[in-house]
Write a structure and sequence with these properties.
Aminopeptidase; four-stranded antiparallel β-sheet; 43% helix; disordered N terminus; Bact_exopeptidase_dim_dom; para-aminobenzoyl-glutamate hydrolase activity; Xaa-Arg_dipeptidase
Length: 404
């Protein structure tokens, strides 16, 4: 490893120093106490009024209204993506971005706890605003819709809203407190086979069976799984398979989701899966159309320094945060973390043993335990940003990475 790389690595993993410590901590705590009713009210309102990916207009309006009341200004221009926004407080050269997720799932509401995610990020932003001038930071809040589907953060990256960012932060609802984890890179496709209809009994030989193409592709994918890179996952559901049992299906459609520990291996999987899909078309005589669904998600890279600073801060709130680098699910925060130092800890509260993406998990999202997690997580994120902003070596590292 070159000397410059060694220096960068040592800075990233250095033990967090005490910030201007007690005074800053008291300011953060005081700000959270001041804004507590609004922060928790936001969490409860979003939880009670779930909106699907890309349609989170009421949630975005609620967050924007709260930020305006706290003195945040809104950037010009705003992001093109509906239900997104960009707001800021302060003028410091170190720009701390808080990513606000607020989309829900069909029929089961906030079964991934994004109301907790949103309120925690907003709480951290309000707390950091109280020390922005003292620490020479700009607090930037980005409304990032459609995490569950198309990946709003990737769209905001493409529009340039992360170009001035020095570090990016958010926390995700969970059953336990964990930091340092990665995520799986992910790509999603809509698959369409088109054949030719015919009477299934009177003239089956005149038809081209699009459903057969899909069955062949499913079989080929199942057999190919053994040769995929370790840790890879390929999921497929049939969304259309014909209109009547006595008609040869002229159209078959499926959704395919591919995950891997790295974006590099994801490309390998995509090539293999595409060949399996092409095999179905070739064998059946159908035509094939593959359409990417949303943006591809890169794997998450959590900054070691920020992770340790977060753990230290959370310990003062009575929370023991585990450090675990294992990949968990997929997130468009992975794409952000490929660009700037980032943190995306799991924020634990009592979910009664329920798993993510279940109605049981959603039911716990406005509990007293979830409320405490919102405030504790906001404190942890804010203090981690303060630690980095107060440490000259870390500040230099973050500013240098941004300019490079």
């Amino acid at each position: 490893m070159k000397a410059a790389a060694l220096k960068a690595a040592s800075l990233e993993t250095a033990t967090p120093v005490t910030t201007r410590s007690a005074a800053v901590g008291r300011s953060i705590s005081a700000a959270l106490e001041r804004w507590e009713p609004e922060i928790l009210g936001l969490s409860h309102a979003i939880h009670a009024d779930p909106e699907l990916s890309g349609q989170e207009f009421r949630a975005a309006k609620r967050v924007s209204r709260l930020l305006r009341s706290a003195g945040f200004s809104f950037d010009d221009p705003q992001p093109v993506l509906p239900a997104s926004f960009s707001a800021r407080f302060g003028t410091g050269e170190l720009v701390v971005a808080l990513c606000v997720e607020y989309d829900a799932l069909p029929t089961i509401g906030h079964a991934c706890g994004h109301n907790v995610n949103a309120a925690c990020a907003v709480g951290a932003a309000l707390a950091l605003a109280s020390v922005a001038d003292e620490l020479g930071i700009t607090v930037k809040v980005l409304g990032t819709p459609a995490e569950e589907t198309s990946g709003g953060k990737v769209d905001l990256i493409g529009e340039g809203f992360f170009e001035d960012v020095s570090l990016a932060m958010m926390a995700h609802a969970g059953a336990e407190d964990v930091v340092g984890g990665s995520s799986l890179a992910m790509g999603m496709w809509d698959v369409l086979y088109e054949g030719r209809p015919a009477h299934a009994a009177a003239a089956p030989s005149e038809g081209v069976n699009a459903l057969d193409a899909l069955v062949i592709a499913q079989t080929a994918i199942a057999l190919a799984r053994q040769q995929l890179p370790p840790g890879s996952v390929v999921s497929l559901i049939v969304t259309e398979g014909g209109s009547a049992v006595n008609v040869i299906p002229e159209r078959a459609r499926a959704s395919v989701e591919m995950r891997s520990p790295s974006i590099k291996n994801l490309r390998v999987i995509e090539e293999r899966v595409r060949r399996c899909l092409e095999a179905g078309a070739l064998a059946s005589g159908s035509t094939l159309k593959v359409t990417p669904t949303g943006n591809a998600y890169a794997e998450l890279r959590q900054d070691r320094y920020l992770s340790e600073a977060y753990r230290t801060a959370m310990s003062t709130r009575g929370r023991a945060v585990e450090f675990n680098e294992d990949p968990v699910a997929s997130t468009d925060m992975g794409n952000v973390s490929q660009l700037v130092p980032s943190i995306h800890p799991l924020l634990g509260y009592d979910v009664g043993g329920a798993a993510h993406h279940t109605a049981e998990f959603a039911a716990h999202g406005s509990s007293a335990s979830a409320d405490r997690a919102v405030l504790d997580g906001a404190f942890g994120l804010a203090l981690a940003a303060c630690a980095a902003a107060s440490d000259p070596r870390q500040r230099e590292r973050l500013l240098t990475r941004r300019t490079n």
